[in-house]
Design goal:
Layout (H helix, E strand, L loop, with lengths): L7 E10 L3 E7 L12 E4 L2 E9 L2 E7 H6 L10 E5 L19 E10 L4 E6 L13 E4 L2 E8 L3 E6 L1 H6 L10 E6 L1 H20 L1
Antiparallel strand pairs: 1-2, 1-6, 2-5, 3-4, 3-6, 4-5, 7-8, 7-12, 8-11, 9-10, 9-12, 10-11
């Protein structure tokens, strides 16, 4: 489990395209501290498994399903990525519960800068819109954010200078894709209520 608090901006230093997958080599001095084979590291919000680790670099394999459902397929050598290690039991939950299981992708639609923050408008797939609510939590490229405004096909977030400086959202431009993970609690509530309604219909 992750919290959506990005630990560092890493960099893609090699990309190997396989028949039905892709292997990335990434640099991240912070997240590789104590890393070992089999550990999990979130890359732009996608939970990946460390295959090899040497110095401040690690490799991770990405299967076709993940490439299809996320924006990782758009990464190239030199791309900057948000990196986060899993939260440890007993640590503070600084953001919200993030699984690293991307639900879909959106696109940066617009950026509106102001003196102390920046409003970013992001497109929202129709099948995810019911999970995104005003003042609720959403994960964008692995970053835990609070929704400012939620529309049918978009939402906005307000970014403080720290987020702009330390994550990919500081350099993303309109048209760039982003990974989205909605609040898992909302999905569980929907499932439980759906089962309950279905059960009531059966007993009628």
């Amino acid at each position: 489990m992750f919290t959506g608090i990005v630990e560092e901006l890493g960099e893609v230093i090699a990309v190997e395209t396989l028949d039905d997958a892709c292997r990335f080599r990434l640099r991240g001095p912070v997240v590789t501290q104590g890393a070992k084979h089999g550990d999990s590291i979130a890359v732009n919000g996608v939970c990946l498994t460390v295959v090899e680790h040497e110095g401040d670099e690690f490799t991770a394999d990405v299967m076709a399903e993940t490439l299809k459902r996320s924006s990782l397929g758009a990464l190239a050598v030199g791309s900057r990525v948000n990196l986060e290690r899993p939260t440890a039991v007993g640590d503070r939950l600084g953001g919200h519960i993030v699984q690293g299981h991307v639900d879909g992708t959106g696109e940066i639609l617009d950026r509106t800068p102001s003196e102390h923050w920046e409003i970013v408008k992001i497109s929202l797939p129709a099948d995810l819109s019911r999970y995104v609510v005003e003042k609720g939590s959403v994960t964008v490229d692995g970053i835990s954010l609070t929704v400012v405004d939620a529309g049918r096909d978009h939402f906005t977030v307000s970014l403080i200078p720290t987020t702009l400086a330390l994550t990919t959202l500081g350099i993303k431009k309109p048209g760039d894709p982003v990974n989205l993970e909605v609040d898992v609690i909302a999905k569980y509530v929907e499932r439980m209520l759906g089962d309950r309604v279905a059960g009531e219909e059966v007993t009628r």
